Amino acid sequence: MRTARPGRARLVTTVSLVLSEVRMRTRLVGFTAAVTLAVLGPVSPAAHAALAAPTPAPSIDGRTCEDGTGTVEYEPNTGTWVCVGGTHDGSPII
Question: Global pTM?
Fold first, then answer.
């Protein structure tokens, strides 16, 4: 009957220890990722809302623009009419 060599038992033990350490590190990385997502998850909508584009001014008609001492002008870059000056400055014209 063949007996195991003493060096082989030491090798098996060393490999086993290395594999268990790798598994532990993998669990640690997974745990760290889970905690990071749990913390950043609720923060994401607030950050997104803070970076959202500002809401445009409400649309008005040309008469309202002129009554507020503004003038109706065409904006060629956007292809829209806007109120320039007065109390409704920057408001789009409907």
Answer: 0.40
Dist CA 24 CA 11 (whole Å): 20
Give a three-class secondary structure readout of the chain.
CCCCCHHHHHHHHHHHHHHHHHHHHHHHHHHHHHHHHHHHHHHHHHHHHHHCCCCCCCCECHHHHHHCCCEEEEECCCCEEEEECCCCCCCEEC
Question: How many percent of the chain have pLDDT more than 90?
Answer: 24
Determine contact, residues 94/62, Cβ cutoff 8 Å: no
Kindly report, residue by residue over 21-57, the tens digit of the pLDDT.
Answer: 777 778 888 888 888 878 877 777 766 666 766 666 6
Nearest to 68 by CA among 42, 87, 89, 94: 87
Please, which residues bridge with residue 92 across strands? Answer: 82
